[in-house]
Amino acid sequence: AIVHGQKTYNGVAILSKSGPTDVSTGFGDGGDESQARVIATTIDGVRIISVYVVNGKQIDSGKYAYKLKWLKRLENYLAAQDCTAQLAICGDYNIVPDERDVKNPKDWWGGVLYNKDLDAWFKRLIDLGLQDTLRIHHKEAGIYSWWDYRMLGFPKNNGLRIDLILATNKLAARSADAGVDRDERKGEKPSDHAPVFAEFHD
Predict the structure, then answer these.
(1) Which residues pair with 13 in a beta bridge?
(2) pLDDT tens digits for range 39-92
(3) Regarding beta strands 87-92 and 46-52, do their DSSP bridges make them parallel or antiparallel, or are they unpaired?
(4) Catalytic hit among 77, 92, 101, 132
(5) Residue 18's domain spans which residues?
(6) Would you tell me how many other CB atoms lie within 10 Å of the CB of residue 201?
(7) DSSP-assigned letter for residue 7
(8) Which of 22, 29, 32, 52 is catalytic?
(9) What are phi and psi of 13, to 5 degrees?
(10) What pLDDT score was predicted for residue 187?
(11) What is the DSSP letter of 76?
(12) Residue 77 falls in the annotated catalytic set
């Protein structure tokens, strides 16, 4: 396991049965690295990047402005990667990719998780040569990874898909399956997120 965390708030980690190599944390761009939100390593020839994207809290807040700046740094960081190699970028993106990924799009549009700026940013990410692994196998709406604890969000499947595994075309070509493990959300005192997974052929 490799871990990059801070007390109470942020943290990212990668666990593997094989030994990690070439471990790095943060963007390495000389900017603010006070928040533990990025860790990367190479495992069995696949570069894996784990991210915890800034939430933003409110659209008119300084935290949302920080989110946009942080996303630009992430975009630059990923653009500098070798997107012709086997690469996966996994984590809580705090972004709704499109209207299939939210139960009530009109209720969420214009907020800190789903708006025109984030929509454009996500499209630029895909244009780098990345694929949303879940959408390789599932085109339908209604697959979510987060549900509010309130108002029976999970039983009503009133959720969002904000946890993603993106893969370069070379890695995506080996994609065998991808999805969300809803069973992990059913336990006693669960997280409001469910684990997402992607499987690849050898």
Answers:
(1) 3
(2) 999 999 999 999 999 999 999 999 999 999 999 999 999 999 999 999 999 999
(3) parallel
(4) 92
(5) 2-200
(6) 8
(7) S
(8) 52
(9) -155, 155
(10) 81
(11) H
(12) no
Nearest to 144 by CA among 129, 164, 130: 164
Domain total of the chain: 1
Q: What is the CATH number of the domain that holds 125?
A: 3.60.10.10
Closest by CA to 97, choosing from 119, 75, 126, 73, is 119
pLDDT digits (tens, 9 = 90+) for 83-119: 999 999 999 999 999 999 999 999 999 999 999 999 9
The residues, any chain, with a CB within 8 Å of residue 175's CB and separated by 6 or more, are 131, 133, 136, 137, 167, 198, 199, 200, 201
Does the annotation mark 101 as catalytic?
no
Mind listing the pLDDT tens digit for each residue in 161-171?
A: 999 999 999 99
CB 12 within 8 A of CB 51: yes
